[in-house]
Amino acid sequence: MPTPASLDIDYQSHERVMKLIDILKFCIEDISLAFESWDEPYVTGPGLYFAIVSGHTVRNHADPMGANRWPVSTSRDVLDDVDSFYEATAEVARNRDGAVVISVDGIVQEQMVRFHDYSADPNQPTESHIQYADWMGSRHMSAADTSARPDVVTTMTLSAETGRVTVFDDGEYSTTPRDELYQAWQ
Question: Rounded distance, CA 181 to CA 176, Å?
Answer without folding.
Answer: 6
